[in-house]
Amino acid sequence: VMFHVANMLPFSRENPQQVERKRHIGNDIAIIVFQEEESSGEQQDFDPTCFKSQMSHIYALVTYRATTNSYLLTVYNAETVPPYGPELAGEYPDHDHFKRLLLVKLINGEKAVYETPGFIKRRERTIDQLLQEIHSRYGNDHIGEITGRIIETTPRIGRKKKKQKAAQLQEKGQNLKVQRIMTGKAPTSRHCISMSLQRRVTALVNWHCEDLALGLNYRVNCADFWEGYILLGTDTGLSIYNTTDSGGNLIEIYDNFIPRQIFVVEDLSVAVVRAEYCKNKSQHVLNFDLSTLTMKSGSTRNFKRKTKNERVQGTKGALLVSPYLTVASKLYLAVYKPKLIQLFEWIKIPGQGQGWFRAQNEFPVSDHVRCMSIFNRRSGLKICVGTSSEFLMIDADVGGTGDSDRKKCIEKLRYGIED
Fold it and tell me: SS3 for 33?
């Protein structure tokens, strides 16, 4: 990001128009104007039409209010500029947050200005001039003959062959992506690989890929694995496959729901599944004991029983799930339901069989959540939430039980982004 600061640009007493300053600031798309407040504490009147420029489309008026140690922000846009975010709150007591918001607002505004009719015409004219220059510099009289010869000798490809070729290229690309993720070199490796390998992924190199002839005739929605087993969620239900048994088959153990997310926590022998039930389309979070699933994989019959005992209480309507296993082997689970994020902790008492998830806290959210991840920092447990217009960082260890306390822990760390 480059700033043209008026006080730092050349100044000339003989030039009343100050061309040295005007040629820089006048060609900027977004202008920040710092204005002192009136004695009453309010912003002074500002008229953006006093700036005579064809390039400047956005004017951000910033005023520091000394009485509250906060900043006031007002943004003026040209009529042709389409809407852009983030939305403004007016007054900002948090100076660091205000700095980030102002930069994001102006960067998004500059991108929006590029879609105005004036800039579209300028871009088309520039591209046209560049193409003409390339043609005049590198073109010759024989270019037409060469082009015609290439077109005549190039064989025509039918639609079926085009689709087949596209599918082959897509398959190769997916294989390369999988290889990069499994070697731990991809930016998303720690999020795409099973939780059982997250601590060891940086030390794994030279992975060997083995194709398993499972004979699947339906789509796989999600999957995860632990030592010797693969847990698959398909459109027909939840299935398990024993990789150590050469003659083993894919065993369908539940057919009354469609798994949407699967997470295996091998250290605690737990499998977390977000499922959509076929009968009433309701969504729940289920937890299974890996030892129980392992026993079912060795059977020739399907265990298609009810899953009422495996449901996590209070997770009806779950749309997203994100687990996190700490270094101390504590398992936390973040569950998103419409306008609400819940935090659960895994509880297991020695000698009392299968453990359970206990509700620990909940946080209201106003926008639809598209992605979510839970992690731990020195300051405590955090939940990063991505909505359609911004990212939210939620302090999961915030004190208090009232709605006002939970809203404060979200509002305090909010910052907007787009694209």
Answer: strand
